[in-house]
What does this fold into?
Amino acid sequence: MQKIERYFPDSNRKVLEGKQATPSAYLGSNPERFSYLHFATHGTASQTRPLESAVILSKEGELLQALWARHCPTSPKRPPCHHVCL
It folds into this structure.
């Protein structure tokens, strides 16, 4: 992640790693302000229902959590975000 984050100034990035990488932390980071989202995690993909695809994040409580593609922020002032998933 350090190799990727160096391309973005501090004011234009939010790094959530390990136990910090939860859906609520992501949604609370105001992700609509970013043009790029980089996830280094496992995920699931749906070819027939793409918005049901997800990246798997850290546990919240006892349950593993997923961040669904439908949660990608959009704004009428700019195009949808770009995902970069590894």
Remarks:
- Strands lie at 36-39, 43-44, 54-60, 63-68, 82-85.
- Residues 9 and 27 are 20 Å apart (CA to CA).
- Helices lie at 2-5, 23-28.
